[in-house]
Amino acid sequence: MPTLLEIAQSVSQAAHWSREPKEDNGSVTFELDGEITFNLILRGEHLAAFTADLGIWPQDEYCADELARRLGTLAAGAFINRKSIVSIAYGRYGLHLAFDPVKVDLIEVPELCTMFLNDLDWWRTNASIKLTA
């Protein structure tokens, strides 16, 4: 089973990123052009995931309901083409793409990362709505 750093290095090398990945509490953070930040996490032997924060979950009930409807509609429409999943936790919502590092070869991980980054771009573009209470 590859380590978290080995998985992160496979992504960095394939993308020709010069910054060496560093592990911090079971997570590696990638920053691209100061605009996009995402993480690679490893939990146990069979769960790794790319994750990214999409924003604060609205406190206002109406705004939260509107955003939930928007995200649900997008998720239903994108389910077949996009493998990343939107989730809500701890007052924020985000995106993740889970994979089993035991079943996925290291040479396949950069492709998963590319898929995740394409999904992240799509969600950042399409999930934003003007919320007014």
Folded structure, characterized:
The longest helix is centred in the middle third of the chain and has 18 residues, at 61-78. The protein is built from three helices and five strands; from the N terminus they run H-E-E-E-H-E-E-H. The protein starts with a helix and ends in a 7-residue tail after the last helix. The protein is α+β, with helices and mostly antiparallel strands. It has a five-stranded antiparallel β-sheet with strand order 1-2-3-5-4, with helices on one face.
Count the E strands.
5
Largest sheet: 5 strands, antiparallel
Q: In angstroms, what is the radius of gyration?
A: 16 Å
Which class best fits the helix and strand makeup?
alpha+beta
Relative strand content: 25-35%
Distance between the termini: 49 Å
Shape: elongated
Whole-number average pLDDT? 89
Unreliable spans are: none
One letter per element, helices H and strands E, the order comes to HEEEHEEH
As laid out across the biggest beta sheet, the strand order is: 1-2-3-5-4
The number of distinct helices, counting runs of at least 4 residues, comes to: 3
Helix proportion range: 25-40%
Give a short synopsis of this structure.
The protein is an alpha+beta fold and 133 residues long.
Topology:
Layout: H1 4-15, E1 27-32, E2 36-43, E3 47-56, H2 61-78, E4 85-89, E5 92-99, H3 109-126
Antiparallel strand pairs: 1-2, 2-3, 3-5, 4-5
